[in-house]
Prior knowledge:
Helices cover 6% and strands 42% of the residues.
Amino acid sequence: MTVLVEFPPGDPGTPPHRHFGPAFGYVLEGEMRFELEGEPERVIRAGEAFWEPGGDVIHYQDGNNRTERAESVHRHDDVPAGQAHAGSRGEDELVQRKDKRAPRPS
């Protein structure tokens, strides 16, 4: 599945979720805050790409890092036909897995 994801200025993005298969993306415009379980938060800028393995890895952040401009991302999710590409994670699961999250910036 290939989608164009657009977040308005300052949008925090989607809540923590898990992709059921690998996802590849390319930031077309703006800057995306990106954080996967076990990795520190980073900013991906227009012209840069990202990859995430999917499966048992929580995707914590994908929001717009800029407050004055939109963010747009071209993303491809590799999932079996008919299966959802992602699922939200509940607070209980996030608490249980907190030791797998990279330390937060101060």
